[in-house]
Amino acid sequence: MSERTPNPTAEPPNPTAEALTPTPPLEDPDLLFLVFTFLPAANRTQSAANHTPHYRAVSCGVLSAVLLTNHTWRAAVLRPDLPHWSRCDHALFMALAPLDLDLRISSQGASSQGNRQLIAAHWSCESVERLLQVKPRLQALDLSQCYVSDAEAVASLALRLPPTLHTLSLHHGCNQPDAMLRQLLRGLPALPQLRCLDLRGILDERTLAGLRLLDRKQGGQAATALPVSLPALETLSVGFHLHSMLGAREGVQLLTAQAALAPRLRHVGCRVAAEAAWGGMGPVDIVCRCCGGTLYERLDAYVVHPPQQQHISYEIHTDEPPLAAAVRAEGDDDSRLWCARSCQGQLWLVDHGSGFVRRVLGRKYAIACGPPVGDRPALAMAILARPPPAEGSEGAAESGGAGAGMPPDPDLEAFPPSMWSAQTRGAAPLTQ
């Protein structure tokens, strides 16, 4: 474009007037930053409402549009202190991809070989490492389906993980799960704030089979050599259960060894997500689905596990006894505990060493949870724990127990039956 011809009759510019001219609202960096802080809330709402993975969530599309608007908007949304950048996963990362990549992926089809190559070229250990260099304040990172070129790439990424990280997830696998698992474990001790770890995609039955094979070759305890010291870890999810032949030996050895190296570990999930809609496994209330009676109040140390019988959706194993007023036993035999109102007839909700139920990791109590199945009645369910009542309030004098109420809302269930696949049911026989 050619320069404009000077106009000798024009009035000279007024520097004072220009200084007093306010910045347009849509170009004010601080205001834009404030507006963009609402982006992560939209993403969490979308994820909670849809339990299936998306290539690009709605909020990611908004983010991509913001990045392409102008330089001022881009600078505001890329500030490292924006809360949006406290989390990163595949969808959020791909929102940063060039627009032409999005168009190429849409034109080729979601499952084409070319698409997989395009996505792998962007969602890889190398690209995530570059992101961490400019976004050093990440608190939650999901590396599911991240492309691994070789073990060295994972090792370099593990060294770049920020010390601010409190949640790390690989709930879906990757192309080289063994390399990803071993290199990541080596880097985890350098994360002093890591509280939540989900390795379901790379620490599964295949891993246990490899450990058994390694034991046969070396004659050692390979499962006990894999865990690492994680002093802040509170929640751990793995991709295997403990009722299989591999789980009963290698799985138990691994989790026992890891618990010894993680003194704050309180929540273990076998094939269950470590990070639920509210932010992870935490204190739960366990109630009878039929009468609403509270069996456990704010239970905060447990194992969530696939069921042993077809009519059960999931089991919760713990060392804590249920509320005395909420259950009843047959005489002096407290190995089988029924709901105090006998809601389930001949089926008991809490097992305390009856011999009919296999308990995991040495836990003393096993609670059967699930909705009604066929002619079988509804069992128990775990819901997000109610906050403790303030001292002196009316609710402070109330306890759960058999003083029931209305049956609980199934939408509040911490571990909904829909998350358990058919393959996880009937994992073990009824008797030991």
Detailed description of the structure:
Residues 1-6, 41-59, 396-402 and 428-432 have low confidence and may be disordered. By secondary structure, the protein is of the alpha/beta class. 31% of the residues lie in helices and 14% in strands. The chain is globular and about 75 Å long. The strands form two sheets. Strands 1-2-3-4-5-6-9-10-14-13-12-11 form a twelve-stranded mixed beta sheet. Strands 8-7-15 form a three-stranded antiparallel beta sheet, with no helix packed on it. It has three domains: 24-86 and 96-110, no CATH class; 124-279, Leucine-rich repeat, LRR (right-handed beta-alpha superhelix) (Alpha-Beta Horseshoe); 284-389 and 397-424, no CATH class. It contains 14 helices and 15 strands.
Keywords:
12-stranded mixed β-sheet, alpha/beta, 3-stranded antiparallel β-sheet, disordered C terminus, 3 domains, 31% helix, Leucine-rich repeat, LRR (right-handed beta-alpha superhelix), single chain
Strand count, sense and closure of the main sheet? 12 strands, mixed
Order of helices and strands: HHHHHEHHHHEHEHEHHEHEEEEEEEEEE
Low-confidence stretches: 1-6, 41-59, 396-402, 428-432
The CATH C-level name of the largest domain is Alpha Beta
CATH topology of the largest domain: Leucine-rich repeat, LRR (right-handed beta-alpha superhelix)
The strand order across the widest sheet is 1-2-3-4-5-6-9-10-14-13-12-11
Q: Which CATH architecture of the largest domain?
A: Alpha-Beta Horseshoe
